[in-house]
UniProtKB/TrEMBL annotation:
Family: Belongs to the peptidase S26 family. IMP2 subfamily.
GO CC aspect terms: mitochondrial inner membrane peptidase complex
Matching InterPro entries: IMP2 (IPR037730), LexA/Signal_pep-like_sf (IPR036286), Pept_S26A_signal_pept_1 (IPR000223), Peptidase_S26 (IPR019533)
Protein name as catalogued: Mitochondrial inner membrane protease subunit
Keywords annotated in UniProt: Hydrolase, Membrane, Mitochondrion, Mitochondrion inner membrane, Protease, Transmembrane, Transmembrane helix
Domain called Peptidase S26: residue spans: 19-97
Bilayer topology annotation: Single-pass membrane protein
Organism, scientific name: Psilocybe cubensis (Psychedelic mushroom)
Active-site residues, as the UniProt record annotates them: 37, 86
GO MF terms, alphabetically ordered: serine-type endopeptidase activity
Length: 194
């Protein structure tokens, strides 16, 4: 009879666990971010706490709600055991001026693919190593940082605009360089025969 109170305490957990598993499998998941490839956006101070973030699977699987500058989790095209956290730099049809070690100077992202990079590209294993990545490898999109408490909230996907008379920050310089490397083709205008 002494185990019965223990069962009663475990009952709420057992009751809600299918809901939690369903939500984490189909809608959201929490990831601890390791590594330096997304600094300073994520893990800005590697000697302190690592960022823990909430990601939306629904935004990717159902809504296909992602685009340039979004931070996403991607199944590694080189080793599917690993999940990478990178920024989408270019979408299908965009032309990217690549960085070493990529063999070509420019690449047009093919249909059904994206170009991903870490914010610190010199320590990042990204599209500059293996080329455009299939959209089918994107698993989720970053929603917000939930730990540490002083970084709680959404992540600004763009650096603050430069102010006249003030020097550019490293983050602003990095973003300007990143955007300068991507050529987005004009959207064809639709004409109707009337």
């Amino acid at each position: 009879m002494s185990s019965f109170p223990l069962f009663r305490k475990a009952l709420p957990f057992l009751y809600w666990s299918p809901t939690v598993f369903f939500l984490s499998d189909h809608f959201f998941h929490v990831k601890t971010i390791s590594g330096r490839s997304m600094q300073p956006t994520l893990n800005p101070d590697s000697s302190q706490w690592r960022d823990v973030a909430l990601f939306s699977k629904f935004a990717v699987r159902e809504a296909e709600d992602y685009g340039r500058d979004d931070i996403v989790t991607v199944r590694s095209p080189q080793n599917p055991k690993y999940v990478l956290i990178k920024r989408i730099i270019a979408m299908e049809g965009d032309t990217v001026k690549t960085l070493p070690p990529y063999p070509d100077l420019e690449v047009t992202v093919p249909e059904g693919h994206v170009w991903i990079e870490g914010d610190e590209h010199f320590v990042s294993d990204d599209s500059n190593h293996y080329g455009p990545v299939s959209k089918s490898l994107i698993e989720s999109k970053l929603l917000m940082i939930i730990w540490p408490p002083n970084r709680f909230g959404t992540v600004s996907m763009k650096a603050c605009p430069p102010q006249e008379g003030h020097p550019l920050s490293d983050e602003q310089r990095r973003e300007i360089n990143r955007h300068a490397r991507v050529h987005i083709p004009p959207i064809p205008s639709s004409t109707s025969d009337e």
